[in-house]
Predict the 3D structure of the following.
Amino acid sequence: MIQRILLCIMLLFLPSLTQGETPYEEQLNRGIRNSDPYAYILIKQSKTENTKSTELLREALKHSPDLPATYFELAKARFSFQPHRVFEALDYIFQGISIYKQNFWSSFMLASSLLTSLLLSFLLTTGIIVLIRLLKDIPLISHDIQENRKKVLILLVLFPAFFGPLFLLGSLLILLGLYMTRWDKVVLSLYLVFLLSSPWTFYALSTAMSAPASGALKAVVEVNEARGNTYALSVLQNRENPVELFSYALASKREGKYGEAIASYNKLLALRPDPRVYNNLANCYVALRNIEKAKELYKKSAQMRPAATVLYNLSQVYRETLDFGKGEEYFLEAQRRDTNAVSQFRAIFSRKPNRFVIDEDLPEPVLWNHTRTKTYRISTMGLSLLPPWAIAAVAVLMGILFLWMNDRIKNRAYRCTRCGKIMCSKCEKHILWGHMCPQCFKSLVKLDELDARERIARILDVYEHKKTQRDIIKIITLFLPGSGFIYAGNIMRGMLFLWPFLFFLLIPLANSFFATGMPNFSHIWLNLVSLVFMVVVYGLANIITRRRIAKGWL
């Protein structure tokens, strides 16, 4: 058994051993710049070997320079309270964040995580608002129906609730919206806008859930981010989609299958001239030692788009034909356009075909657009029995219904702002100043209509009522910041605290679901940032709530 294992290891490393090359050199020879699995192994090893952690992490960075996790681990390893080490750690953090634009799956999973957290926190916030306000406003609805039986028709607004949880929330919010202030009705408007945007929303969520399971998309990303070629050769063969055909051609060229690569690139050029295709096709001819054909194709690419890559490649082939003056001219022009890119090209330079001239791959925007245009099964995640387009149509009808009801139903029940007693225009002939009941109005304004004993008793009752309300506000704010404002009737202000708090709270949970590579290293920086903001929102909500209570504004 041991002999078989040793034989497998020898066969694995035999090509590099026979050519005197390390596995890293062999990786570069095949056009692979990033070896994420090996980098993760080194990261895990760095956690157990503290004395060599920095060395191991820098080796991981060498093998996978486009992996954000490596930069964040280096930031942790290098951090100390010495000023230069603090700046070094911050530099690694900023590099790790900036490298997201070169790592499709990290940026895709990050966007998916943020989108999911945003939408889920919005739905939870709306649900909490509905729950709290139902407890406060059901007596108002009941009072109106008892006073005027015809108002039972307002319950018809709950009919859409049979179509699923989304419509249940919307229906209850419309019902409660009849008793909200004009400013607080913005909450209802936001929810209706959310329902109107449901076709896009559920498409984005379905893409976030389905895209990571797409073998073709994985293969495309793997090739264009220089992570591997073999999988693409097995998955993308005979594809007609331009992005997938380009990726198959690139993988074929890097694995030395120049005939297949040339045929695929020519098929792409028949569809549409593309400077990237001309450059990569020229690279195939360089590998086949047809330098003059390569020059011709490079010049076509440079005429369409004089990128640093094609100018550098031109400098290489002119030097190869001993035209050093022309080669130097193209090299300096490439450096002028993108010094960093040329430095990276020279860092991996070798006489090997994949390192002598540089292939152009598809940038992140193209990969994102390819992901967006792929067909996915759109799911409403069990939130609606209707398809997304129907959700938007029903949302329009719900908005029209609310506007009609809000205009037709004039006299609605309200609470006394001091003692909480429920009244309506049928109970009282006119609404008194400050929405107070007659007893509170007399005890505060018309002092001559109550004797001292009645007035003091009324003031004590109001004091006890207010104290109870304020104690409830303080307690529920401790659990959910902003909920105290919602309970007190300042719904929009409460939402401005509650929604961000839940958003930051859900980010670590969403990050664990949309994990890339090894879960423990997925967007760990964002988890820490969200924790800080969550604490800030929690603290601000409680401080502001207590200050407003102290001033008598709640």
